[in-house]
Prior knowledge:
Blueprint: E1 5-12, H1 19-32, E2 36-41, H2 54-65, E3 71-73, H3 86-96, E4 100-107, H4 108-111, H5 120-126, E5 127-132, H6 139-150, E6 156-158, H7 168-176, H8 187-196
Parallel strand pairs: 1-2, 1-4, 2-3, 4-5, 5-6
Helix pairs in contact: 2-8, 3-5
This protein binds adenosine-5'-triphosphate (ATP) and magnesium ion.
Adenosine-5'-triphosphate (ATP) is lined by residues 12-15, 20-21, 24, 106-107, 109-110, 132, 134, 164, 166-169.
Amino acid sequence: MKGCKKTGxxxxxxxxxxxxxxxxxxxxxxxxGLDEVxxxxxxxxxxxxxxxxxxxxxxMVRLAIEKYPWFALSLVETNRQxxxxxxxxxxxxxxxxxxxxxxFIMGADALFQIEKxxxxxxxxxxxxxxxxxRDDYDMNSIxxxxxxxxxxxxxxxxxxxxxxxxxxxxxxxxxxxxxSIVEDVPVEVAEYIRREQLYYEED
Length: 203
Ligand code: ATP
Ligand code: MG
């Protein structure tokens, strides 16, 4: 759409939010000339175990994005009862904001899962997908996957950025072992985790 507002969506469990999420979102913001990026914590899924209270995940996102005026918190998925699906969220957002173009930002691990999400074709019809390298997925494998997904209508933008070796899983494991996470998360988030004593007891 011509002249549309360009809004990025950074969805995640954010258990906890970390610098990988922030760098990814900010790279998309800068490289694609987005107007804003919405951080959208997922609702609590019965399928994911050991996810801490939604309020705490939201608190940490709020703390992490506070100093970036072009980042905003979206509670569309956490406010919904039961499971929330990206396809429904995008449909809803587009209905409310018909002049906005959405860019759904993700790491390659999510791109390789997306066919298993509910109604991937609907997701592709309401948003462009913005994807960065992660874990063992390099740009070649991402492009190959992207070509396959384009047959389902996916319009994929490949973000050319160095790999960021940070994950929430590693952060939770570090906290449990009393290893500092100060390089992995904003200092306000590290402080929150310490104060609330999150992740120390995790299995
Ligand atoms: P967990 O280890 O609990 O799965 P995570 O670090 O993968 O946590 P999520 O909240 O699951 O974080 O991820 C949300 C989105 O951010 C996903 O699209 C994921 O691919 C992306 N992402 C997270 N960390 C990175 C990273 N280091 N590099 C690129 N993308 C990332
Ligand atoms: Mg993940």
